[in-house]
Amino acid sequence: MTQLPDPVPVERPDRQRLQMADIARIAGVSVATVSRALNGSAEVSAATRQRISELARSLNYTINVGAKNLRLRHNKTVAVVIPFDQRARLHVSDPFFLSMLGSLADALTDQGYDMLVSRVDADQLETAARAWDTGTALGVILIGQWHSHAQINTMSDRGVPLVVWGAQIPQQRYCSVGGDNVTGGLLATRHLLERGCRRIAFIGDPTTPEAALRLRGHRQALLDAGLPHDPALQLHSSFDADQARTALTGLIESGTVFDAVFACSDVLAMAVMQTLRLHGREIPRDVAVVGYDDIEWASHADPPLTTVRQPVASAGAEIVQALLAIVGGEVVPPRTLPVELVVRRSSLR
């Protein structure tokens, strides 16, 4: 017989979440299924609802109605969650994340709300809803989708009010707010083509939604110019400077000819410029470089970096507005915000 965990007082929200996980493990279902069953959702069969309810009673588990009422009526806290994806290698200290956190903090303060920041493992993204499940926060803002699209759909399906900073994806059942990544890739590559570049390397991770759309724009610009897409010039790198240096070093050592690099972030672009200098390439005379994001460091790079500016300044207000509308019961469609090319010396050949 399975040994059940000791009963835990329901007035402690952090332990209550643990009990829900215990129920899910013993019942052999997901935490989302337990949540739906205990809330009487018709999406769960009557037999499963009864089995989970009986198991919950044996654990002295009850839904914290007080926490729900607090969340719906009086809560003034929003959970801002940064998924950490081991494959993407993007950390909270990344300048783009810090800029986005600042924009969200300003927007929430303007609306009279507090911000609770946390980081979760992207492979266990359901834990991002913990603050909402326990009544600590009235909704969730996720900064980045990474490879977690299906998990975000699942959270939305079970009623978690959430908005994601990221790309709009087919079969998406949640609200996203993000920059126009296709146009960004198009602007960056078209600019390099206008400066006379013809062998443009792309560096990024197209398995992530935003980078995939930037690559689509890059390829469209090449197609519009009548140039083929050369797979040898597509370099795979997560948002990690060391991976970018390794990828570009491999391209240089292979003898492949290239005269420009379009990098999927400014951090990658700066790693590219460092690597080019180490191999005796002058920027932009030998190789022009364009980045993405327009972080604060971009204008202070040597040479100053041409980049695609993300709408960070307006993004915080757009995301907060969308989340509060969802909390209020509205259905909010995804929003795509305009981007712009900021031209500096790194691409002016």
Overall description:
With 349 residues, this protein is an alpha/beta fold. Helices cover 42% and strands 16% of the residues. The chain contains 12 helices and 12 strands. The strands form 2 sheets. The protein has a 6-stranded parallel β-sheet with strand order 2-1-3-4-5-11, with helices on one face.
Question: Nutshell version of this structure?
Answer:
It is built from twelve helices and twelve strands. It is of the alpha/beta class and 349 residues long. The strands form two sheets. The chain has a six-stranded parallel beta sheet with strand order 2-1-3-4-5-11, covered by helices on one side.
Please render the helix and strand layout as text.
Elements: H1 13-27, H2 31-38, H3 46-58, H4 65-74, E1 77-84, H5 95-110, E2 114-121, H6 130-133, E3 140-143, H7 149-157, E4 162-165, E5 175-179, H8 181-194, E6 200-204, H9 209-224, E7 234-236, H10 241-253, E8 260-263, H11 266-278, E9 288-293, E10 306-309, H12 312-327, E11 335-337, E12 340-342
Helix pairs in contact: 1-2, 1-3, 2-3, 5-12, 8-9, 10-11
Largest sheet: 6 strands, parallel
Helix content: 40-55%
Order of helices and strands: HHHHEHEHEHEEHEHEHEHEEHEE
Structural class: alpha/beta
Side by side, the strands of the main sheet go 2-1-3-4-5-11
Q: Roughly what fraction of the amino acids lie in strands?
A: 15-25%
Rg (C-alpha, Å): 23 Å
What is the average of the pLDDT values?
87
**Low confidence ranges:** 1-18
Shape: elongated
Number of helices in the DSSP assignment: 12
| C-alpha end-to-end distance | 74 Å
